Amino acid sequence: MRFINDLNLKKQADELGVSVWQTPGFLFIVLGLVAAAVMAATFYLSQNYGSPEVLILSECAVAILVLTVGNSVIRVFEQMAKVNKMKSEFVSVASHQLRTPLSAIRWETELLLSKFKKGLSEKQVKNIESISLLSARMTRLVNDLLDVTRIDQKRLLMKKEPVNVSALAEESIAEMSDLAKSRNVEIIFIPKKNMPKITGDREKIKMVMENLIGNSVKYTTNRGKIEIKVFKKDNSIVFSIKDNGVGIPEEQQNRIFDKFFRSDNCVKYQTDGTGLGLYIAKSIVEQSGGEMWFKSVENLGSIFNFKLPIK
Ligand code: ADP
Questions:
Q1: Is residue 198 within 8 Å of residue 237, measured between CB atoms?
Q2: CB 3.0 to 4.6 Å from 220: which of 65, 133, 145, 224, for a disulfide?
Q3: Nearest CA owner, ligand 1 atom 3
Q4: What share of the chain has pLDDT > 70, as a percent?
Q5: Structural domain total, the chain
Q6: 161-209 confidence digits (pLDDT tens)
Q7: SS3 category, 247
Q8: Which atom of ligand 1 is nearest to the CA of 279?
Q9: Of 108, 138, 156, which residue sits at a domain end?
């Protein structure tokens, strides 16, 4: 299947933003054809011309041809790698530049609301609250973009500290409880005592938990019920979150950890989202030596799990 997809050159070109002749699939076919032609020509020459000069000359011609094609393949890949690096650098610089004005907007709106709320009309308060909400959303997006570039450039730094996963889950649930209440979603979790600790970056693991809890809340319609479990299995601690939400269509499940991917059923009724959370979460878990996986049935719900090794 993957092989057939690789040969869909137009799709590949659209996805990579290059012309068809620059796609890896096309270059792969060219290399294949060159190899076949070279073999046929060598066979023909060795059959028809016994003289060593002709054979040496033809071998030189073959070597030049292979080197020329190989060189152009390398050039194309080099160009792609450069463009990719430039893109990451652009996203990184743009995100850094956006952070300062965004923080200023949030700071000013918070100041307005805390100090001057009395002098403002109801409509003015609503408008300022909306600015504050939108700038918080933009700050989240900018932070996600920065994390993605750090992950792509293998620059995401992870601390190594002892972490009690059950206690951290309790903390994350407490921080997400307002959101859950506002959406009428119940979260069930029974913390466990005396669980072995794992070694990892506390804040980043908390970010992973909050992303999974946030998703379960966001993608669960009214009367939602979320069950969270933290348990020990073999030499790992597993965090598991089950919801009775909208689920993920089966044909889109293989793309769920892709950057910017959002399933059709979620995009329809939940516009707030970037499709970066799970990509970041999975990278953090894997960089901590763990694994992330899920099961989901459309219109029934999903279970997202991750495990981290006890060291
Ligand atoms: P975002 O939530 O910002 O869109 P994520 O990377 O966290 O980005 O999630 C990617 C997509 O995976 C979501 O847009 C949604 O389509 C799907 N998804 C994630 N978690 C759930 C869930 N608990 N239930 C249903 N769909 C989910």
A1: yes
A2: 224
A3: 273
A4: 96
A5: 2
A6: 999 999 999 999 999 999 999 999 999 998 888 899 999 999 999 999 9
A7: coil
A8: 6
A9: 156
Asked whether 244 lines ligand 1 (CB < 6 A), one says: no
Give the domain extent around 196: 161-309
pLDDT value of position 3 = 57
- Looking at the fold, whether 168 and 278 belong to one and the same domain comes out as yes
Ligand 1 centroid to residue 261 C-alpha, Å: 8
Q: What is the mean pLDDT of residues 140-153?
A: 91
Give distance in angstroms: CA of 309 to centre of ligand 1. Answer: 25
CB under 8 Å to 308, separation ≥6 — which residues?
Answer: 165, 198, 200, 205, 236, 237, 239, 285, 288, 289, 290
Q: What is the pTM of this model?
A: 0.78
Contact between residue 65 and residue 41 where contact means Cβ atoms under 8 Å apart: no
Ligand 1 centroid distance, CA of 59 (Å): 56
CB contact at 8 A, 136 and 272: no
Q: Which residue, of 133, 156, 179, is where some domain finishes? A: 156
3 state DSSP class of 49: coil
Residue nearest to atom 21 of ligand 1 (CA): 215
Of the ranges 44-48, 136-140, 185-189, 264-268, which one carries the lowest mean pLDDT score?
44-48
